[in-house]
Design brief:
This protein has 14 helices and 8 strands. By secondary structure, the protein is of the alpha/beta class. The longest helix is centred in the last third of the chain and has 24 residues. The structure holds adenosine-5'-triphosphate and magnesium ion. May play a role in septum formation.
């Protein structure tokens, strides 16, 4: 079993790198262009934290984080992720909303599609999702175009959400009798690829804890899968079944589907178990596992209760910093993919 070298730190990205370019461009209020941004300019928010003293430093970090716009590269083309794990409560929604918010904070335009009838992502983003609100349900059954369901998060002008209402709970059953039932979300997302919605840099689809038709629709609609895995007992339980489902969707419905990203969540550095789980997951998934690990933090779990992400609720906290680092890794991954595509 491989030890996890970063057991005491949530982010080993640790890149020191020169922050000059990103600082300059931030001050100018402009996005870092595709030409000027390089991976070497990456730095770690959590690593910075290690040298600081408590309260003043936390406030300083919070201010810096809230003015982080323009620090990440835009992907060459829009990236669409399905966030899936049929195990409940592993951090799918928390990862969806906080990675999305972190990317938006750093200048990218991001959409979260809430595909879980629980509507937790909508709640965390401060988005209206009472019954009757135009939502992912109407998009799925083809009643309303995607653009008519978009809502802007009150916390960030570049962060949008297609909410989920309780009506979505009936969709699994309604979909069964529909034509092309597995591809309905993909058809609805055509709008994102062409026309006015094509300027979204990142799209995250938050799935319910099941492998039913909602999750299948999400897997058919997205080329990339992000799997959050909780650093707890039975972490890998059920992952085999998820991977088989992904394989089946790839073989029959979506040849581009790939698990590009695995995120370790709710890591508790005080326990040996968390390290063991992290090592097992890294042994299994290799480089797709983000080096940044999301710590277990009460603040992270409190934020949705206020209709906020951790980036708004407590921007100087470790939870916020680790989601900033995770989002940076994802964006760098996107820049590297771009290099490979060229
Ligand atoms: N890093 C964290 N630290 C502490 N609590 C967390 C953390 N991440 C998530 N939680 C809490 O754990 C619970 C489950 O998280 P979340 O809702 O993101 O999981 P999920 O996989 O989306 O769940 P579901 O399967 O029900 O959709 C929530 O109460 C959330 O606030
Ligand atoms: Mg959820």
């Amino acid at each position: 079993m491989n030890p996890v070298p970063e057991s005491s730190s949530t982010s080993p990205t640790g890149a020191t790198a020169s922050p000059d370019v990103s600082r300059e461009t931030t001050a100018a209020g402009t996005d870092v262009s595709r030409e000027t941004w390089t991976e070497g300019q990456a730095e770690s928010w959590v690593a910075d934290e290690a040298v600081d003293t408590p309260i003043g430093a936390e406030a300083e970090r919070a201010v810096r984080l809230l003015h982080a716009r323009g620090q990440l590269p835009r992907p060459a083309q829009q990236r669409v992720f399905t966030i899936a794990n049929q195990k409940g409560g592993v951090g799918k929604t928390t990862t969806a909303v906080n990675v999305a918010a972190a990317l938006a904070l750093q200048g990218l335009k991001v959409l979260v599609i809430d595909l879980d009838p629980q509507g937790n992502a909508s709640t965390a983003l401060g988005i209206e999702h009472r019954p009757g609100t135009p939502s992912s349900y109407e998009v799925l059954i083809g009643e309303v175009p995607l653009r008519d369901t978009l809502q802007q998060s009150p916390h960030n002008e570049r962060l949008f959400c297609v909410p989920a209402t309780i009506e979505l709970a009936g969709a699994e059953i309604e979909l069964v009798s529909m034509v092309a039932r597995e591809g309905r979300l993909r058809t609805a997302l055509e709008e994102l690829r062409n026309g006015e919605l094509s300027d979204f840099d990142y799209v995250f689809i938050d799935c319910p804890p099941s492998l039913g038709l909602l999750t299948i629709n999400a897997l058919v609609a997205a080329p990339e899968v992000l799997i959050p895995i909780q650093c707890e007992y039975y972490a890998l339980e059920g992952v085999g079944q998820l991977l088989r489902t992904i394989e089946m969707v790839r073989a029959h419905l979506n040849p581009k589907l790939t698990v590009t990203t695995v995120v370790l969540t709710m890591y508790d550095g005080r326990t040996r178990l968390a390290d063991q789980v992290a090592a097992d997951v890294r042994a299994h998934f290799g480089d797709t596992v983000l080096r940044t690990v999301i710590p277990r933090s009460v603040k992270v779990s409190e934020a949705p209760g206020y209709g906020m992400t951790i980036l708004n609720y407590d921007p100087g906290s470790r939870g916020a910093l680790s989601y900033m680092d995770a989002s940076r890794e994802i964006a760098v991954q996107g820049a590297q993919q771009r290099g490979q595509d060229q």
